[in-house]
Each structure stands twice: as C-alpha cells, then as structure tokens.
Design goal:
Elements (H helix, E strand, L loop, with lengths): L1 H15 L26 E3 L3 E10 L7 E8 L6 E7 L18 H10 L3 E6 L10 H15 L1 H4 L1 E10 L3
Parallel strand pairs: 4-5, 4-6
Antiparallel strand pairs: 1-2, 2-3, 3-5
C-alpha cells in the first residue's frame, strides 16, 4: 500500500506542471442529451447473435433510468417478430438477466434470437422503487422503444409479443 501511495505522489508533480495554454473545452448541446457518451459495446453470442446491454428506454425524474438488454441476429435484412421478456418476482424482486434455475439466462434469450426473433429483457422499476402501475408503464415503454426503433433493430413493429414469469 505504501509503495502505491508513493508511486501516486511521484506522478502528481508531473500532472500539476501542465503547460498554461492547455485548456479543457466541453461542447454544449442545444438540448438535453440522453445518448450515453460511453455506450456499452455489443456482446457477441453464437450463431451470429449480438446483444446490446443496458439500453436506456426511459428516464423519469426522481427514478433510475429504465433499461433493457436487446438480443438480435446480426442480419437485419428483413423484419422479425420481437419478444419482450418480463422477469418474474411479483414486481418486487428479480432482474432482466436471471430466471429461476437457469445458470445463464442471457444465453437462453440469445438462443431465441438465433431462431429468428429480436428478444428484449426489461429491468422495470420494482415495487420498492415505485408504486404500481409503474411496472406496467415501464413494460409499455419497452414496447414503445422496440416499435420506435424497429427499423434499426430489424423488428416487425406489428409483431411484438410479451413473455414472462409471475409478474
């Protein structure tokens, strides 16, 4: 620990003596920017399926952003039906990446995408975070997102199906 602290202290003078003409500038947008400036990389699965983790679909004042994982075939040359997974837990527990005794739930969702679907898994607000019907509103936001971005995702907007556990 002492060695790490000494190494850091030796770096500080170099940082502090930066040339005076060096400045840091930030671009100011005309409106609020919601696109993540540090986007998550796509995750590759077998059979040419890619996943986009933690896609923000809603951001309401006073709550954490609502996100979902999206699994899709890389080939987007034609539209496919979409399946939205709504995890179980009675609206009070659980998350988009687990289901029962499955050791790797994302791999299960990716296997559905390999069969010709676009699959999404939503992390809705739990009942300890927001009162019902907030959870239903989050699921509706996920459906809207899939339809709104249907061209980019390769989704047939008229065929969005729900699937889920006890919730």
């Amino acid at each position: 620990m002492k060695t790490v602290a000494l190494a850091l202290l030796t770096l500080l003078p170099a940082c502090a003596t930066a040339p005076a003409q060096t400045s840091v500038e930030a671009d100011i947008a005309a409106k609020t920017v919601r696109e993540d400036v540090f986007p998550q990389p796509e995750i590759r699965f077998p059979k040419d399926v890619v996943a986009y983790p933690q896609v923000e679909i809603s951001n309401l004042d006073g709550f954490r952003p609502i996100r979902m994982d999206i699994y899709a075939p890389r080939d987007r040359s034609h539209s496919r039906p979409a399946i939205l997974w709504v995890h179980g837990g009675g609206w009070s527990r659980g998350d988009a990446r687990t289901s029962g005794a499955y050791a790797d739930w994302p791999a299960v969702l990716a296997s559905l995408a390999a069969r010709g679907f676009v699959v999404a898994s939503v992390d809705y607000r739990l009942s300890g975070e927001a009162r019902f019907p907030a959870q239903i509103q989050d699921v509706k936001a996920a459906i809207r997102h899939l339809r709104l971005h249907s061209d980019a995702l390769g989704v047939d907007a008229s065929r969005v199906y729900l699937w889920g556990g006890s919730a």
